Amino acid sequence: MEATYAVDENRLTDFMGQITNDLGGAYSVAMVKLGDELGLYRALRDDGPATAAELAARTDCDQRYLEEWLAHQAASNYLSYESGSGRFRLPPEQALVFAEEDSPVYMIGGFENAISTIENQPGVAAAFRTGGGVAWGDQASCMFCAVARFFRPGYLHNLVQHWLPALDGVVEKLERGALVADVGCGHGHSTLIMAKAFPNSTFIGFDFHAESIAAANEHRDAHGIDPERVRFEVAPADGFAGGPYDLVACFDALHDMGNPAGTAARVRDRLKADGTWMVVEPNSGDRIEDNLNPVGRLFYAGSTMICVPTALAQGHGTALGGQAGQARLTEVFRSGGFSSVQRAAETPFNMVLEVRP
């Protein structure tokens, strides 16, 4: 028996407009990746507006392909088009998003991450049926590279300038000389940003993913930082060594951990009595209805395709998800022996929690 529906034509038209925009955005992911990988955005930034023929000469790319790519970018409002000259221009605002790696709004990592979620789909679909996970190292291509590239701008423009100063007494300790653990450090961007700002302190980055630790050590060496003062080690979050630490930090990582309560207990055990645990997590509300917005949409997708599969693959059965909220996170902190939890700072994407014994 066929179902019958009472359809509001105006609502359907509005929804189809949304879907058209959504599909346009989805198709644009690969187009943006092309622009970054082939240096097209950088060429337009550095040498100014260009026709397809001029951009072809600058980049050694084929003119016919560039004609289609440039037209798409203009239709997407990623480039502007000058009809009189036939040239395409990268406006300064778009340049910050596509061509300036140190910009606070650089988003190429987000587009790369979107590609990774598509590649992850078969493995995640299988996990939906079994309740199992997809291990971090088994995720598509270099998904962990994309994650590092996505989060780096936020750390670069907030960590030293806003987040650490919001923590009681932490900057003073770092300036004098403190021992710091960055747990779930990934490629080490957060660790190195702190280390460069506070040369009297010692930093150890821990991550369970060996390839990420290798990349972190390469980044450290490329920055010329003393390996005696900054080092990276492979270790699980609920079993990292050393201490006692003045500061333990977890940047966008706690919700990916298979045993967050065990991590909290380990941090409590390795932290000085007057130490601080800084936990940076997605800025989300405690209820689903608080997160039904564009940022929540991004984070729920990432959580479904990356965070929950990663956590479940670690075998403990806990998967906080990317939108856990402060109340659920506070339960985890208290289970590990912490008594004080405060929101010290926030951005549209992150909340910074100051956790103390």
Description:
- It is a single chain.
- The protein has 357 residues and is α/β, with parallel strands linked by helices.
- The protein folds into two domains: 9-98, Arc Repressor Mutant, subunit A (Orthogonal Bundle); 108-356, Vaccinia Virus protein VP39 (Rossmann fold, 3-Layer(aba) Sandwich).
- The chain is 50% helix and 15% strand.
- It is built from 13 helices and nine strands.
- It has helices at residues 9-37, 40-47, 52-59, 63-75, 92-98, 108-130, 143-163, 170-176, 189-197, 210-222, 260-270, 294-312, 326-335; strands at residues 80-82, 87-89, 179-183, 202-207, 230-234, 245-251, 271-282, 340-346, 350-356.
- Strands 5-4-3-6-7-9-8 form a seven-stranded mixed beta sheet, with helices on both faces.
- α6 (108-130) crosses α7.
- CATH fold descriptor of the largest domain: Rossmann fold
Low-confidence parts, pLDDT < 50 over ≥5 residues? Answer: none
How far is the N terminus from the C terminus? 62 Å
Global shape: globular
Strand content: 15-25%
Beta strand count: 9
- What is the name of the CATH class of the largest domain? Alpha Beta
What is the domain total for the residues?
2
What integer is the average pLDDT? Answer: 94
**Name given to the CATH architecture of the largest domain:** 3-Layer(aba) Sandwich
The biggest beta sheet is recorded as: 7 strands, mixed
Name of the CATH homologous superfamily of the largest domain: Vaccinia Virus protein VP39
Total DSSP helices: 13
Helix content: 40-55%
